[in-house]
Structures are given as C-alpha cells and as structure tokens.
Amino acid sequence: MRYKTVKIAANRMEAELIRGYLEAEGIRVFLKPSTRPYGGEAYFGDTGPVEVQVPEESFRKARGILSGLEGS
Asked: More exposed terminus of the chain, fewer Cβ within 10 Å: N or C?
C-alpha cells in the first residue's frame, strides 16, 4: 500500500489530533517524523514537523476533511 503526505503538522501533538479526526472517518493514518529541513535546520523526532500520511486512495477524502477543519 502506498502512502501520501496529506499534511505536515508542526509537531507530534498536532499530528496526533489530525490522526484522530481522520481515523474517526475510517481513514488509516501513518505518522512519519519529517527529516526535511525547516528554517535552515533539520528536525527529528517529536519536537519537529511530522508528516501525516494516508493511503493514496484515501488522499482526496482526507484533504476534504482537513480543509473542512481548517475552514471552521
């Protein structure tokens, strides 16, 4: 199964909240600590950005859910 990043959360706590919303809608979620550089530094683990990934076939539904949350 291929996963696709639907959102880059600022930290682990935000990523866990997003995971809860998506899993409540029946979407499988994988959280991956981001190793991309942000602000000139690379962050690792719980203190830095976390990629919220979903199966490719659930990507559109997940984006719709997240855009609904961001709009409210």
From this structure: C
Classify domain 3-71 by CATH number: 3.30.70
Residue type, 39: G
Determine contact, residues 54/29, Cβ cutoff 8 Å.
yes
Ranges of residues in the chain whose predicted pLDDT is under 70: 35-46, 71-72
Do the beta carbons of residue 19 and residue 30 sit within 8 Å? no
The whole model's pTM is what?
0.82
16 Cβ contact partners less than 8 Å away, ≥ 6 residues apart: 31
